[in-house]
Records
---
Amino acid sequence: MSRLRFQHVFAALMLLAALSAFVLPPRLTSRAHPEIQGLFAPIAWPVRAVAERVMARVNPPGAADARSKEAIFKENEELRQVNVTLQSELSQLREAMNLWDKLGSLKERCTPFAVVGGDAGARDSLLLRGSSVEGLRDGMFVIHPGGVVGVIGRVGWLGGAQTQLVTDRNFVVRGAFANYGRDDAGKLGLRRLRLPAVLVNGLGNGEMLVQRVVRDDAVQAGVAAGTWLVVNDPDWPAELRDQRLGVVVDMTTRRDSALHVDVRVRPPSDLRQLRWVMVMNK
Amino acid sequence: MRWYVYFILAYIVLGAQVAVGGFVSVRGAAPNLALLGVIFIVLHAPRDAALLGCFAMGLLQDLLSTHPVGLLAFAYGFVGLLVRAVHQMMHRDHPLTHVAMSLLGGLTVMAIVLIHGWWRPVLPHTALGEAPALATPMAALRPSVATEFMRVVLTVLLSPLVIGLLQWAKKLFGFRQEYRRANLRSSH
């Protein structure tokens, strides 16, 4: 290929790429998006397994607890007392806990899939080892024992399903604040806090954001660090209602309005490091 | 350049990127291993093959991420042009050259991604793929400058190691020696 002709070809390719990225709407370019994620599973899967083992040694879970030994011993003793009480109430709790009932029926509708890897770019997504041949479809919901993971965005027949995480910048879901504990009558369960439904926006970097919550309402309702954020979206399946999205990390007063706060929420575990997930495909 | 060796490199680099991205990250930023592969190719391959290789690597990375198709292909093609413009003045095998070119490439990709995020912010959508119906419009969340800069820093820190390793396998690629402009100082 002569030098002159190659320059024309390369210029055309660059122009096409720029048009695709900066001009054309994503719904057009995604149609011509071949799904090749599954081809990388043979290398991504073992490398991820090694990375997970190294992480477990270097930064084991629970290593970040900076409390004193006395505080931990005291908490252990309190937890032993609570555990004895809960053991005797277990059969009653299974009826009382709506969340457990729903999870019970959810298990029958889900199929476990292995996670091959994460996003090759800067977004929050997971690659699942599965394909359209195994029954995966765009728009299927993905969960794990700790709560909601996300929604399958693209599935290829070659193998590989890209799942958009709830923490991705592009992700939005309606949610509600709730606390899990005992009510005034002593009944254990999930209690929604007295606040209107909120819009939860993925923030990237494994976090979510609830914007423009009236501060006084939030404080009065009892929103604080550790409060649960659960799904409350009419567009989602009824079985996923009240499934946990994350827990509140902090509330920050907005710069443009002293009366409103932004609430930062984080899933109970880093979704980008999951190795197995459950897909609601039944 | 032997293209089958190039595609093996792309396969390994992108597979590793996908696998360790969630584990090796600082403030949400993971190193960009594909960019290091691009820098290596651009420094050693002939011009036409180098530019095409950069573009192809970016396109493959686009297909493995939720980025719009073409964003990284365009960015890496641009990096290829920039590095080719200056690499004649540098010692291709020196670690400082690798660090400098990685920094140049990283900052270029960072600028393009941030410009794209500003020009076409990713508007949130619900699980049904629709924009949420809201009384007050929701502001789009743009990529964080700090996160992207941290990605550049991590990539530059890894560059001497990764590109150094690739140097060992340089012969496998079958790069042809191409004409380089003579250093005018040494001729006197």
Note: Residues 181-188 of chain B have pLDDT under 50 and may be disordered.
---
Amino acid sequence: MGQEEQKAQRLKDFAGYQVTAEMATKGGAKKDWKFMHCLPRKPEEVSDDVSPHISVCCFS
Amino acid sequence: MIVARVDDHSVVEALAENSSVPVINALSSLYHPLQALADILTIQETFPQGIKGLKIAWVGDATNVLYDLAIAGVKVGINIAAATPEKYPFDENVLILVKGHAQDGATIHLTSDPLEAVKNADIIVTDTW
């Protein structure tokens, strides 16, 4: 129960922090920017439209 | 050699203090140096033309992964920008360390605005929150 509340609070706290292609374009990242994330990743952390910017997978 | 994955960072510090063999931090509450090594290696492989002057933008929580990425990054001349929510600020002591380790004019910029952090970024990074 506590975990669900925590997750709901985290989702609220990190609203607007999901990494998306739109964020990168709007913010003016370099055109061929690369994305990195140490796995496992959750969908609220990064959107699927970022996948063209992933050139390597690194497990750690 | 001891490779220790711990919770509180003080545990790995105590190990190092009391050990007669080298102690490697495999993750602690404050740092994740092996992750940073892997990340810098990945960046080197992805940018074979050179990594000095690149910009990494971090968007997410202020975590052990961010802290060591920032320290490692500025040591090799990579500029760091980190956007974390105001409720989760970058650790002040780590910030002093980062600034002290910067080479080749590398800078660190902190903000709570992801759009500000990603400006001119070569690499955008996040981690679990």
Note: The helical segments of chain A are 2-13, 21-27.
---
Amino acid sequence: MTAASGESQAPLSREAAQRATARIAAFREELEALEAAGLLRLDAETLERVRAFHDARLAQWRRDFDVDASLGARRLGWGMKVASFVAALALAAAVFFLCRRFWGHLPTAAQVTLLIAGSLGSTLTSLHFAARERYSYFAKLFGLVACVCFGLNIALLGRIFNLPPAPEFFLVLSLFAALLAYACEARLLLAAAVCCLTAWLGARTGTFWGIYWLGFGERPETFFPAALCLFALSLVPHRRLPDFPPSYRVWAALCLFLPMLLLSHWGGGSLLPFAARHIEWFYQIMGFLTAAAVVALGIRRDWPETAQCGVVFFSIFLYTKFFDWCWDWMPKYLFFFLVGLTALLVLIVLRRLRAARQEQAEAPT
Amino acid sequence: MKGILQKLGILRPDGSMSVRMRRTLWFTAAALLQIAACNGVILSRVAQNRAAPDAELALSGREFRTQSGLFEDSGRFVRLRYQYICTSEETQLWYNGLFHPWLDAGKLAELGYRNLDAPKEPPFPRYPDKKVWVVLELDGPAYARYVAHHEAFHARAAAALAAEAEPGEARNRALADLDEAEKYLRKAREEESRLVLIDAGMDAAALRRQYPNRTRYAILPGRVRLGISNDKDARGKITWRFDPKVNLEPNTVFVPLPFAETFAAIDRQNTKNVRLQLAVGSRLDPWVRDLRVE
């Protein structure tokens, strides 16, 4: 991530280089507009120096990070991301089914050797492409394939040697996916790591409460420790991977709010020793309070994704309450009118908050 | 070497390594180390398990079924067939456990279900499943009691038929009862599994001390579930009771390649005249030591 105050440091990631490229393009456009309006005219020497400086940086970033220098290239870049994602999933599925198709026809020694070789080979292939930032799409693609290969490695060894299933499978897979995510700077692999970590923490929390580990999904509260853990991970400084902490915070919000939403309608799934109705009320109130607190935290700490998660879930809690209270007896046109009015009210509140923030930002220090 | 690393992009043309590349190398090295470590742990567990077997059971075709993989899965497995036996002579316990007479309140408390109040009416609390060790008995006292029960039933049916000398509805009923008793006795002696799930516990070593015969008793991982069922009496009154169930989990064992042909032959012909040597190791992980058609 470039320093917030200037461009003196070279970008340390592709995303940072892409943002810096966009800033240069915006600067050039604004400079043209100011010159056309007659408000600013740089002398030829300064203009030439600035242009040469920017051109050199753009050329270096294109060489090192394969950034998209124009709007058209950026649109193609989005297409490449989608194609890369589809290719990663398809290749991973192909490896999975290929393994299933032929593993039973091999002797045990060959099975073990091929499983380990598959994990090692795909990881080294991912490293080979990660070494060249220009081929980051391929690094991420093979990173996902490596995760599938490693998962198959562990799972099939378990089947071959008849080992009992254990939740630690998710822990080792999460750790592996996280290592590759940090190696390849891939948020897709980070998502895989987060999902596996959430599953392991949920299973272990469940066993702490005396639940068989495979049944952790039946108790939504087992996901709360994962929310705490992911939020804690987001607080770890990620100078070179600035996109990772927001991802951790979004997943933490999902692990917090989705169970709350479920328990606000299904108190019977709670671990708490109270009546289901009381538990539902508790989580309805907690849902509103927590969502509001998350919005406040996101605004205060300048975490836009956190604030947005809070707003989304506040709205969901609100509309589910409207549905519970009003749907059966209220005329439908009035119900949707009420929903629309509430949305307008939320919009007005957010506008006022935004205006207050802007005033604060513009106030002389 | 330097030239190769430069060609691979790990080193810059000037021979230095970027910060990003250093980070990538460290994380990838950690991932490779993790692959080695995880596989090492698994394979050492397997070696430890197979070095000192805990039990070895000689199963017939009655005690297992072949199971091939689904959706293009080329794996071969045997699924163990076992019974839960409860004869009518068993003591009717306070929750009337029809499948596991030994799974009484004391045993449930031992398995972690403490302070259970008898269920009165819904809604009921949900009781979590528990991971336990289960004991399988092969051709032992439980199976012998089961066969003896059917022999006694057969003897009673034969005596009832002998008592009905006159042709008529009563004699026809007695004949039908004897046919049924013969059918169940034949099934018990020749078709049904001799493998019976007789006990469960949290301490595998304690179970092994209680059941020391390693050619008759195998201790394997299982799961206990505590459900709730009801009975209705003649007046339609419903009484709720606990309905605990314990299962072997997992109950499939992989069949390695040397036995693939035998497996295929058994699968094709559905033959029961087979012998499976099932070994259970010191870590209580089972494996197929031998599989043959007799």
Note: The mean pLDDT of chain A is 85.
